[in-house]
Design brief:
Strands 1-2 form a two-stranded antiparallel ribbon. The protein contains 6 helices and 2 strands, in the order H-H-E-E-H-H-H-H. The protein is mainly alpha-helical and 181 residues long. The radius of gyration is 18 Å and the shape is globular. The two termini are 18 Å apart.
Length: 181
């Protein structure tokens, strides 16, 4: 089966439009679930607002840079087909999940991907789709982290414990399974 790519000015098949719409709506639903649960998945309230804002900006800039400059993988040695791209922003998202919780990380991931995709000149629906995919990935991984294993604020209590290893493994496995296509 040969895959046809849609160029600029061409229309996607209707089934692809439905899929894109469902992913975007799914991302909005995951974000709404965290927004409607105050205190769950948000950073520890004892962290000051200024410190949290500084950390948020640092994670946002790091994620934006990681999303903007992907590593290009050449998969075909005979023909330079451009290959696939790999971004390393996932490591920043997982670190943010463990340190500050999923709700904080959802905001960072969505903004970083939207800004990077728009900076790269991608269409708005592609940027929204990519942001929604990241929100779903971070949200479900955060669900594993917060609702199954840890307190709503920090992973620190589980460092060097068997339960912590299982929670960390589950969170990273969930992230990998959702983020790998």
């Amino acid at each position: 089966m040969r895959v046809q790519y849609v160029g600029r000015g061409e229309q996607l098949p209707s089934l692809a439009n439905v899929y894109i719409a469902y992913i975007i709506l799914g991302g909005m639903e995951v974000a709404a679930l965290y927004a409607l649960q105050p205190g769950v998945g948000w950073p520890d309230p004892s962290i000051g607002g200024l410190e949290l804002a500084i950390v948020g900006v640092v994670f946002l800039i790091g994620s934006f840079i990681a999303e903007t400059y992907p590593i290009r993988l050449h998969t075909n040695r005979l023909f330079d087909d451009g290959g696939d791209e790999l971004v390393v922003s996932s490591s920043l998202y997982i670190a943010s999940l463990l340190l500050f919780g999923p709700a904080f990380t959802l905001v960072i991931a969505a903004l970083a991907v939207l800004l990077a995709d728009l900076r790269l000149g991608k269409a708005l629906y592609k940027a929204a789709f990519n942001a929604a995919q990241n929100v779903i990935t971070v949200g479900v991984s955060g669900f594993i982290l917060v609702f199954i294993g840890t307190n709503p604020y920090s992973f620190q209590h589980y460092i060097n414990s068997p339960q912590g290893v299982l929670i960390l493994f589950g969170t990273c496995l969930g992230f990998f399974m959702l983020n790998s296509g």
